[in-house]
Write a structure and sequence with these properties.
Strand order of the largest sheet: 1-2-5
Order of helices and strands: HHEHHEEEHHEH
Helix content: 25-40%
Distance between the termini: 34 Å
Number of helices: 7
Bound molecules: flavin mononucleotide
Largest sheet: 3 strands, antiparallel
Shape: globular
Radius of gyration: 17 Å
């Protein structure tokens, strides 16, 4: 699939079939995440692949009831939780290098969008689920060690219903030239 086509047509998928995902496709999307750029190529994003229904149920319980992806976390055949080792991205020789602090959210975000695009190209659905009020509950469920935190989770599976594209702002609203606010 053409890259721009994948970027345009990928959607957040919130309804899934129970059909299992072959390991070959799972590995393909994880490979796409592996090849994401990262701070100084430090590669401190980690992925926990969850298939156990009881664990998926627990993960879904960490979301607010109103989260439109809670059912998908429960019922999709696979959930991937993206985690990061802290104090690596944005650091040089153990010292924070920029006034933006820890860049782990940035590295995880890039990697997970790679994963989402690869999944779309492979005929699979995903949705970035980041609205997790207390992510320490996720850390506990998955047994994350000290210094590693969960960032987001996504269901992975075959979509059960069409998803409509929410509108995007026009370029004129979000792009400036030379100075902020200048068109
Ligand atoms: C960082 C981040 C967190 C998100 N968290 C959630 C979430 O908790 N639940 C959910 O249903 N969708 C979540 N989304 C999906 C967005 O709502 C979705 O990407 C947006 O509405 C655009 O729709 P599209 O992905 O179909 O283009 C999240 C997206 C991002 C990038």
């Amino acid at each position: 699939m053409d890259t721009l086509e994948a970027i345009h047509n990928r959607r957040s998928i919130r309804q899934y079939k129970e059909t299992p995902v072959p390991d070959e496709l799972l590995n393909k999307v994880l490979e796409a995440a592996r090849w994401a750029p990262s701070w100084a190529n430090s590669q401190y994003t980690r992925y926990v692949v969850v298939k156990d229904p009881a664990t998926k149920e627990k993960l879904a319980e960490t979301l607010n009831r109103g989260n439109p992806s809670a059912e998908a976390i429960k019922h999709a055949p696979i959930v991937i939780v993206a985690c990061a080792e802290l104090k690596k991205a944005g650091y040089y020789k153990g010292i924070v290098s920029t006034d933006r602090g820890d860049w782990f959210m940035f590295d995880v975000g890039i990697a997970m969008e790679n994963l989402a695009l690869a999944a779309h190209a492979a005929g699979l659905g995903t949705v970035h689920v980041g609205f997790i009020p207390d992510s320490r509950k996720v850390d506990e469920i998955l047994g994350l060690p000290e210094g590693v935190v969960s960032v987001e989770m996504t269901p992975l599976g075959y979509q059960a219903a069409e998803a409509k594209a929410p509108p995007r702002k026009e370029l004129a609203e979000i792009v400036f030239y030379e100075k902020y606010g200048k068109h």
